[in-house]
Amino acid sequence: MFGDIARFLLNTLFTLFGAALLLRAWMQVVRMPPYNPVSNAVMQATNWIVLPLRKILPAGKIDWASILAAFIASLVYVVLMVVLAGVDPMLMVPMLLLVAVLTVIKWALNLIIWMTILMALLSWLNPQSPAMPLLYQITAPFLDPLRRILPRLGGIDLSPILLFVIVQVLLMVVTRVAVSMTLFGI
C-alpha cells in the first residue's frame, strides 16, 4: 500500500512540474506575453531550475533550458520509480535515459490534453473568460490544422475531440513502450 501511495504522489508531483516546464517552453514558442498571470505563475514555479540552466543553454526561439529541465525532472522521476520497484537503477542506466525521454513525451501529450479540455470547457461555460485568449494561443498550433480538415457541424468545433483522440492514441503507444522497457508504468 505504501508503494502505491508513493508512486501516486511521485507521479502527480513530477507530472505537474514536468508539465509546467514544458508549458514554459511552449509559451515561448507561441510568444505568450510574460506579464499575464498564467505565464508569471509558470515562470515563478520553474525559475529555480531553468535560470541556472540558461547559463549553459541561452534562450532562443526554443527554450532548451526548460526542455532540459523537464528531461532532468523526468530522469529523477524514473529513477525514483525504479527504486520504489526494488530495482537497482545503476543496472538500467541506458534504458532509464530512454524511458526519461518517453516520460517527457508523455507529459507533453498530457499537457496538450489538459489545455484542450480546459479550452473546450471554458468555451462552453464562459467564452469571455480572460483565460480564453491564452488557451487559444497555446492550443491553436494543434487545433488549426485539424480545423482545416474537419467541417464545422452547426457551429460546433469538433477539432478538440479529434485532437483528444489522436493524443490519447499516442499516449497509449508511449506508455506501452515505456512499460515494456521497465516492466512497470511511468
Automatic annotation (TrEMBL):
UniProt keyword terms in alphabetical order: Membrane, Transmembrane, Transmembrane helix
The identity of this protein, by name, is Membrane protein
Recorded GO cellular component terms are: membrane
Q: Which residues cross the membrane?
A: 64-84, 96-125, 161-184
Membrane as a keyword? yes
What's a Pfam family in this record?
A: CCB3_YggT
Cite the InterPro entries for this sequence: CCB3/YggT (IPR003425)
**Is Plastid included in the keywords of this UniProt record?**
no
